[in-house]
Amino acid sequence: MNQTTGTKRLQLALLLGSLAILGPFTIDMYLPSFPTIVNEFGTTASLVQISLTTCLLGLGLGQLIIGPMSDVLGRRKPLLIFLSLYLLASIICAIAPNIYFFIAARFMQGFAAAGGLVISRAIVRDVYSGKELTKFFSLLMIVSNLGPIIAPIAGGGILYFTNWTGVFIALACVGLVLVIITSFKLEETLPTEKRVPSNFMNVVKNFGSLLKDREFTGYALTQGFIIAGIFAYVSGISFVYQNIYGVSPQVFSFLFGVNGIGLIIGSQLVGRLSGSISEKTFLKFGLILSNSAGAILLVAILLKAPIVAIAIPIFFLVMCIGIIATSSFALAMESQGHIAGSASALLGVLPFMLGSITAPLVGIAGEHTAVPMGITILSASFLALLSFYGLVQRSPLKVEVAKSVNY
């Protein structure tokens, strides 16, 4: 296994992080624009939230298709194709004549952005394994987690000078820069002899073998549910902060961006201490913390507490993403080197598919209540906890290993 070190390692992390950041930018950068888009199109909050849902569906479906495609064609060529499509989709979003056209364009944009997400993770598995995989992924998370910090602040800043269409013009520029960087800086990491045959049934078989792997499925569902809860937060928090608490788009962007620091703290805890504390221990800690913070958040919402009582548990909820995503990814991918693209696709698709369900739920009671958001977040955290203890901890393989050790 070719494991790069030093300067090359940092350069690779910056490049792959820039690709992975496309997802957070696509999701988060237009969040401060939600109330503005409602007024611009003369539509409802629910329809604007559906534009987020369709983007999440595109991100999920795109990973299912692009991940296996990269196992067949290599990483570089599919990445360039879908980055170019992302550039086009962003321009279409900016010129959308109505909310329905906009919703469709957001699906296309999410689908194209999936290329950066799934292929960047597959490249990590191509190059690293073992503890180095965990450490590098935590480094990648630092770079990619700058997205949730920068994106909403940038979106709020753009709104200060122009309207919501400027956000999507900026995203088109991001896509263009990534096309150029990838063209000149990214080398192919999957040799021809390691690629899987171009056969649809082989793709189905690979997905089937992954889903039959109880531990892999447990890790995937654990990560999927916890991130789905955060998507409920992403979908509803702009209305909560701006409509209920009356903050400006710029203040909202700051509050939203601060949570990105939590993401970095969480992922760095795992990366820095993985040599002395196991990934599974971190995963358990993250799940307990997320459920505790979710319960506190729901109580604060029901009591109509001040904004600080909402912001603090949300910070810890988002920090759990850094802990859980880093540890669960490393544990799930460790034994999947031969089909890393397909494994990365499944790990990526579940959060977005589940998030496409949770995102619209937060708006079912209107724009002036946060109760559905709190219930959805806590429920998602609890389902993540059940997935881990129901599938991973009770894995038959683990029972056999334990018996042999005791013997």
UniProtKB/TrEMBL annotation:
<keyword id="KW-1133">Transmembrane helix</keyword>
<feature type="transmembrane region" description="Helical">
    <location>
        <begin position="107"/>
        <end position="124"/>
    </location>
</feature>
<feature type="transmembrane region" description="Helical">
    <location>
        <begin position="309"/>
        <end position="333"/>
    </location>
</feature>
<feature type="domain" description="Major facilitator superfamily (MFS) profile">
    <location>
        <begin position="12"/>
        <end position="398"/>
    </location>
</feature>
<feature type="transmembrane region" description="Helical">
    <location>
        <begin position="43"/>
        <end position="67"/>
    </location>
</feature>
<keyword id="KW-0812">Transmembrane</keyword>
<feature type="transmembrane region" description="Helical">
    <location>
        <begin position="12"/>
        <end position="31"/>
    </location>
</feature>
<dbReference type="InterPro" id="IPR004812">
    <property type="entry name" value="Efflux_drug-R_Bcr/CmlA"/>
</dbReference>
<feature type="transmembrane region" description="Helical">
    <location>
        <begin position="371"/>
        <end position="392"/>
    </location>
</feature>
<keyword id="KW-0472">Membrane</keyword>
<feature type="transmembrane region" description="Helical">
    <location>
        <begin position="251"/>
        <end position="270"/>
    </location>
</feature>
<dbReference type="GO" id="GO:1990961">
    <property type="term" value="P:xenobiotic detoxification by transmembrane export across the plasma membrane"/>
</dbReference>
<feature type="transmembrane region" description="Helical">
    <location>
        <begin position="79"/>
        <end position="101"/>
    </location>
</feature>
<dbReference type="Pfam" id="PF07690">
    <property type="entry name" value="MFS_1"/>
</dbReference>
<comment type="similarity">
    <text>Belongs to the major facilitator superfamily. Bcr/CmlA family.</text>
</comment>
<dbReference type="GO" id="GO:0042910">
    <property type="term" value="F:xenobiotic transmembrane transporter activity"/>
</dbReference>
<feature type="transmembrane region" description="Helical">
    <location>
        <begin position="167"/>
        <end position="186"/>
    </location>
</feature>
<dbReference type="InterPro" id="IPR011701">
    <property type="entry name" value="MFS"/>
</dbReference>
<dbReference type="InterPro" id="IPR036259">
    <property type="entry name" value="MFS_trans_sf"/>
</dbReference>
<dbReference type="GO" id="GO:0005886">
    <property type="term" value="C:plasma membrane"/>
</dbReference>
<protein>
    <recommendedName>
        <fullName>Bcr/CflA family efflux transporter</fullName>
    </recommendedName>
</protein>
<feature type="transmembrane region" description="Helical">
    <location>
        <begin position="345"/>
        <end position="365"/>
    </location>
</feature>
<dbReference type="InterPro" id="IPR020846">
    <property type="entry name" value="MFS_dom"/>
</dbReference>
<feature type="transmembrane region" description="Helical">
    <location>
        <begin position="136"/>
        <end position="161"/>
    </location>
</feature>
<keyword id="KW-1003">Cell membrane</keyword>
<feature type="transmembrane region" description="Helical">
    <location>
        <begin position="216"/>
        <end position="239"/>
    </location>
</feature>
<keyword id="KW-0813">Transport</keyword>
<feature type="transmembrane region" description="Helical">
    <location>
        <begin position="282"/>
        <end position="303"/>
    </location>
</feature>
